[in-house]
Amino acid sequence: MTSLETAKKIVSILDTKKAEDIRVIRVRDLTVLTDYFVLASGTSSTHVKSLTDEVEFQLKQLGTAPAAVEGYGSAQWVALDFGTVIVHVFYPEARRFYDLERLWADGEKIDIDSLPKQD
């Protein structure tokens, strides 16, 4: 899968599991860390964990495992590093505090409504 296809799949998984405020930011031209950030919020620490669990499970089924998972214990901000895509799932207060959308404001915002739906 390309990095954009991976991001699309992640958006689809998060949407199916009722993640809130899903955003995709293309940061390929701004950093060597990754091509895309996918950001989403969960409604509780349990929801944050279930969102990240589902993304990890479904991508493993497709042969892609995260290189690293950070923050799972506290479930305030969980990051899954898939190399070309880094997924950030936040508890709402943590998302407002860290405000990655502002920090990466120079990145290209991808309209997720225009992304083709994944199966």
Automatic annotation (TrEMBL):
- Where is this chain primarily localised? cytoplasm
A single Gene Ontology CC annotation of this entry is: cytoplasm
Pfam short name (any one)? RsfS
Q: Which domain of life does the protein's organism represent?
A: Bacteria
Keyword terms of this UniProt record:
Cytoplasm, Repressor, Translation regulation
Offer an example of a GO molecular function term for this protein.
ribosomal large subunit binding
Q: Does the keyword Chloroplast apply?
A: no
Query: Could you tell me where this protein is found in the cell?
Result: Cytoplasm
One GO biological-process annotation of the entry reads: negative regulation of ribosome biogenesis
Presence of the UniProt keyword GTP-binding in the record:
no
Q: Which family does it belong to?
A: Belongs to the Iojap/RsfS family.
Q: How does it assemble?
A: Interacts with ribosomal protein uL14 (rplN).
- Write out the function statement from the record: Functions as a ribosomal silencing factor. Interacts with ribosomal protein uL14 (rplN), blocking formation of intersubunit bridge B8. Prevents association of the 30S and 50S ribosomal subunits and the formation of functional ribosomes, thus repressing translation.
- Protein name, entry field: Ribosomal silencing factor RsfS
Q: Which gene encodes it?
A: rsfS
